[in-house]
Request: fold
Amino acid sequence: MRSELELELRLPRYNTITKNERQQKRCKMKILIAEDDSSLLKALSSILKKNNYSVDAVDNGGDAFDYLVSGTYDAAILDK
Reply:
């Protein structure tokens, strides 16, 4: 049976990255937003773009499905 100390020593050390490195990683992420409320769609899109994410935005589920099938996304934000 291993002690807690042994397990802690096996955990990887926390790697610090610079703000610039975080922004570069974000820029590579492609996100799809599907939201029928135009003001919320604009707000979400604006926030993500300001944080260097690549964003595609659609206002209905049918278009969202088409985008998901034809594109490669790292994440999707969908409403009900």
